[in-house]
Automatic annotation (TrEMBL):
GO terms under cellular component: plasma membrane
Region of interest (Disordered), residue spans: 398-422
Domain G-protein coupled receptors family 3 profile, first and last residues per copy: 625-889
Membrane topology summary: Multi-pass membrane protein
Protein name (record): Extracellular calcium-sensing receptor-like
Signal peptide start-end: 1-35
Keyword line: Cell membrane, G-protein coupled receptor, Glycoprotein, Membrane, Receptor, Signal, Transducer, Transmembrane, Transmembrane helix
Similarity comment: family membership: Belongs to the G-protein coupled receptor 3 family.
């Protein structure tokens, strides 16, 4: 085991030993034993605890950290530990001590508060060490200057005086949450009230565990949540944290994380620092801050720890971080006035204990002088430190501590001169006498008044809580009951009361801004916190850059509108990628977690930031596809008209007259209608165009196919009638019967169309099934059954015609028209069989184009297969246009 580890374990073991000894001492005192065994005292007698006290009828205790550098532990592993005196006089804590003394003196001159009763105090320096604080607390509540030696005379502030003192029924102290927890639990069995001015742990609000604890500082819940709301308000989604390795730090960051949960703020790292290893811990934390991408760092530490952290950051030249300060260091003069850390500290935004002024306190501080308080060791040490002279013939602990390390040149050191007595704080500009913004001092001031009002209620018999008491017989449990119900107005006009252990939460929001010269920092009030409400003047904030531009601290830049957040697997939610919204979805805010679909009649714009009305699209005459189909349809109609003219011109020839020329003319007319009806499908659909196009299409094709079917039937009947005994067959297929058959077949389709279009006609409707900015306006089939009957009837006639033509294809004739009909119907059926899958799979207006193509293609097939051979003979082979040639076998 290393020597460092051994030293650390030895220190821990002695701390535990101290605590056990103190508990044993408390048990001995409770049993009424006056003599404390040496086995207990040997752990407690080596320290030198100093105090400041004033006699009175009732004494209240005070426990403050007047010094902030703990005594060093010297251990040679063979002897018991020896503690050297505490060093590092804290001017703020000295001011806090005199704030308590001033409040007591102010109470004593108040004729309405505790009349006839003089209030006294005893303030002890615990030096920030838990064992010392516990020892001092037990000394106060048990009534001894030194717990192991009760010979001190009362009224002496000299620690050498060893006489029994009056026990205190109430203790004002606990400068940390850990100390508050320990004091409350140890003094809880005695029901001694503890009023803390700095212990802010939320756990201390639990009255079941800490029934004797009170505080004049709000719970850390409020400041942690206020800092969290600052992070949310300024959109700092990626922050780091440095916390004290105590209950204060751990519970504060826990509350911070609880508040930011679900609000888009993540903590990149949490570094802990401990006061006894601050050099090493601050170096590690500074390196972590340097390596992190977080630009906003929140710090829950004591100001001395923050000072070391800033010094380490200065060495690393890390000056581009924005710090959020807890109340433990947000108003520290040490940091504000240290030029070595000004580059890091500029722009700090923090939560501070609410400030107030205490009238008369500044004059009280300026009138302090060792000549008027010769027994005040704290004032003498402060005086010698500030003025560099000796008040007494022997140097105080300030000079003793500064020369406590023996060297070979120590004998040659020059002793400081004696003070002349003209030194004074009157008229001096000194932080010690600055009472413009009292924070912790005001908390202590309120603590004294809370204690005074509770004592007043107890001693004046003005309450029904308990029986009357006298100053000589105050029972702590009775005082505790009155303290729970205290309610008064402070000299500053503030209503004061306890809600359990707490007072209503009030904070200031402060900002560290550069002065006009830029070399110094000043503290500026920028808002306040009232409970959970945050009131901030953003225009008054000066950030670390010296401007009003809010710093940015994010893991990933906020996703712009038109994109959505996509979290990265295994990383915090604040680290994400931005994916563009798909078509038909939008996001119109930055950092949107998802894309919203557009309503049915809208579509996303190109940037995916807004839904715009759908653009209606249809097959028009102006586009290439429409022009092509129109040209094909008009050409087909023109060719059909030309064929019709040829047949009219040669209507007396055998080729035209063969097989009922009337049906040929009717067939050409129906084909022309088929070509022309396709034009109705082009253009913007309307109610009447939707109805007319389907009726024209269905009737035209039925008329065409009916003509072909009757022609085929006539061919079959003609050849059948040539057989013996079948002469009467042709009387059923005369010209009148042929015309009647065509009309009959066509009338069935007309009836279907009339019923369909009357009951459930097609209507123009946007085709929303196909996604896109452009939506096709098409004729939607309200009744699929009606459309199916139209197509089915056409198909039935076509199949019948094909079957009859197939049967008549081999009849003995030089020019058998059944062959032509067979080929034409094969093409017709092939086109419409292919039409069905093509129509179903085609999107938007292309489905309409497919239907038009099928109409034109099938019409061209019928036209060329039936009439092209006839026109060839009529125009180019007139010698074959004879009855003899046509009837030849």
């Amino acid at each position: 085991m290393s020597r460092a580890a051994a030293t650390s374990m030895s220190s821990v073991s002695w701390t535990v030993s101290w605590t056990v000894s103190l508990l044993l001492l408390l048990l001995i005192r409770l049993m009424g034993v006056k003599t404390v065994p040496d086995v207990v005292c040997k752990h407690l007698s080596s320290q030198n605890i100093r105090s400041l006290h004033q006699d009175g009828d009732v004494i209240i205790g005070g426990l403050l950290n007047v010094h902030y550098i703990p005594a060093s532990l010297k251990q040679d592993f063979t002897r018991e530990p020896h503690y050297q005196p505490c060093t590092g006089l804290d001017l703020e804590s000295v001011k806090h001590m005199y704030a308590m003394a001033f409040a007591v003196e102010e109470v004593n001159v108040n004729e309405e508060l505790l009349p006839g009763v003089k209030l006294g105090y005893r303030i002890v320096d615990s030096c920030g060490r838990y064992p010392w604080g516990l020892h001092a607390a037990l000394s106060l509540v048990t009534g001894s200057a030194d717990t192991c030696n009760t010979t001190a005379s009362p009224g002496a502030s000299d620690p050498a005086a060893q006489t029994s003192l009056q026990p205190v029924p109430l203790l004002i102290g606990a400068s940390s949450s850990t100390t508050g927890i320990m004091l409350s639990r140890i003094l809880g069995p005695l029901s001694v009230p503890v009023i803390s001015y700095l212990a802010s742990c939320p756990c201390l609000s639990d009255r079941t565990k800490f029934p004797n604890f009170f505080r004049t500082i709000p719970s850390d819940i409020y400041q942690a949540r206020a800092i969290a709301r600052l992070a949310v308000r300024f959109r700092w989604t990626w922050v780091g944290a440095v916390i004290a390795n105590t209950d204060y730090g751990h519970l504060a960051i826990q509350e911070f994380q609880e508040e930011i949960r679900g609000k888009g703020v993540c903590v990149d790292f949490i570094e802990t620092v401990y006061r006894s290893t601050i050099d090493r811990d601050s170096r590690r934390a500074a390196l972590k801050i340097q390596a992190s991408t977080a630009r906003v760092i929140l710090v829950f530490c004591w100001y001395t720890d923050v000072h070391q952290l800033f010094l380490q950051l200065a060495k690393l030249n890390v000056t581009d971080r924005q710090f959020l300060a807890s109340e433990a260091w947000s108003t520290s003069d040490v940091l504000l006035k240290d030029p070595d850390v000004s580059a890091m500290a500029a722009g700090v935004v923090g939560v501070a204990i609410r400030s107030s002024q205490i009238p008369g306190f500044e004059n009280y501080l300026r009138n302090l002088h060792p000549a008027r308080r010769p027994g005040d060791d704290f004032l003498i040490e402060f005086w010698e430190k500030e003025f560099g002279c000796r008040v007494r013939d022997t140097a105080s602990s300030y000079f003793s501590a500064s020369s406590s390390s023996p060297t070979k040149d120590s004998a040659q050191k020059v002793s400081p001169p004696r003070c002349s007595g003209t030194e004074s704080l009157q008229g001096a500009l000194h932080p010690f006498t600055d009472t413009s913004q009292l924070r912790v001092a005001y908390n202590i001031y309120l603590s004294v008044y809370a204690a005074a009002h509770a004592l007043h209620s107890l001693l004046s018999c003005s309450s029904n809580i308990s029986t009357c008491s006298s100053p000589e017989n105050i029972r702590p449990e009775e005082l505790l009951q009155h303290l729970n119900n205290v309610n008064f107005t402070s000299p500053q006009g503030e209503m004061f009361y306890f809600e359990g252990a707490d007072t209503p939460a009030k904070y200031d929001l402060v900002n560290w801004q550069r002065t006009a010269g830029g070399s110094k920092l000043k503290l500026v009030l920028i808002g306040h916190v009232d409970g959970f409400d945050l009131h901030l003047d953003e225009s008054a904030v000066q950030w670390r850059t010296g401007s009003s531009q809010v710093p940015v601290s994010v893991c990933s830049e906020s996703c712009r509108p038109g994109t959505r957040v996509a979290t990265r697997k295994g990383e915090p939610v604040c680290c994400f990628d931005c994916l563009p919204c798909t078509e038909g979805e939008i996001s119109n805010i930055s950092g949107s977690p998802h894309c919203e679909p557009c309503p049915s009649e809208f579509w996303s714009n190109a940037d995916r930031t807004a839904c715009v009305p759908l653009q209606l699209d249809f097959l028009s005459f102006n586009e290439t596809l429409g022009i092509t189909l129109t040209t094909a349809a008009v050409t087909g109609a023109t060719v059909t008209a030309a064929v019709l003219l040829v047949f009219l011109y040669y209507h007396q020839t055998p080729m035209v007259r063969a097989n009922n020329s009337e049906l040929s003319f009717l067939l050409l007319l129906s084909l022309k209608l088929c070509f022309l009806c396709s034009l109705v499908f082009i253009g913007r659909p309307s109610v009447w165009s939707c109805r007319f196009q389907q009726a024209a299409f269905g009737i035209s094709f039925v008329l065409c196919v009916s003509c072909l079917q009757v022609k085929t039937m006539v061919v079959l009947a003609a050849f059948r009638s040539a057989r013996p005994g079948a002469e009467a067959l042709m009387k059923w297929f005369g010209p009148g019967q042929q015309r009647g058959s065509v009309c009959f077949f066509t009338s069935i389709q007309v009836l279907i169309c009339v019923i369909w279009l009357s009951i459930s006609p097609p209507v123009p409707q946007p085709d929303l099934d196909v996604p896109g900015l452009k939506v096709t306006l098409r004729c939607a089939m309200a009744s699929v059954v009606g459309f199916s009957l139209v197509l089915g009837y056409i198909g039935l006639l076509a199949c019948t015609s094909l079957l009859l033509a197939f049967l008549a294809r081999k009849l003995p004739d030089n020019f058998n028209e059944a062959k032509l009909i067979t080929f034409s119907m094969l093409i017709f059926c092939a086109v419409w069989v292919a039409f069905v899958p093509a129509y179903v799979s085609s999107p938007g207006k292309y489905a309409v184009a497919v239907e038009i193509f099928a109409i034109i293609a099938s019409s061209y097939g019928l036209l060329f297969c039936i009439f092209a051979p006839k026109c060839f003979i009529i125009l180019l082979r007139p010698e074959k246009n004879t009855k003899k040639y046509l009837m030849a076998r």
